Amino acid sequence: MTTGNILIVEDESIIALDIKRILTKAGYNITGIAVCSDEAIQQVSQVQPDLVLMDVTLEGDIDGIETAIQLNEAYQIPIIYLTAHADEKTLERAKATSTFGYVLKPFNRQELTTMIEIAISKHKAEVAVRQALKEQQELNELKSRFISIVSHEFRNPLNIVLVSAELAEQYGELLKLDKQKLCLQRVRASVRQMNELLTDVLALSEAETANLQ
Length: 213
Description:
By secondary structure, this protein is an alpha/beta fold. About 65% of the residues lie in helices and about 10% in strands. It has helices at about 15-25, 35-45, 65-75, 90-95, 110-170, 175-210, and strands spanning about 5-10, 30-35, 50-55, 80-85, 100-105.
């Protein structure tokens, strides 16, 4: 079973304590109970729980749905609405917040814990996917920079080889022996440099296929 830290946002103290009792018995850690939007946001900023159980109707001017929107924007924490309101307008507002669940009062223990377990597991999976995509993007950017650098570095030795070949072709017999040797040395050095670059490219290829530690 999935476990985690849960914040209860409920302005009815009896209901909030009952939820706390049920979830504590089920193995969850209750980080706190908030009765209004300000308390909920403050507690999330301090603890950042794994999930928030959010009542739609709260004390104050800001209801649970608006509070959920603010929490999603700031912390991307999964939220399950727990409410007696099931009218179409409320449901549409709740759906627009990308909620992880909607449990109607009165609820039973199995229904609530199952919804929480699914929500936490789903959120962890989404976080893992986002992290994988981020790492893949970083790897693609690294490979792009690598290819750009290699392409640039290949031009220098190739230009040296090309210039040396042109000099040898046009002025070979007129060049002094030390100048001829210098041209050949430059060609050999350029070939060695290109060979090292090719070795680096092959190393990257081996790394991609997991053949290189």
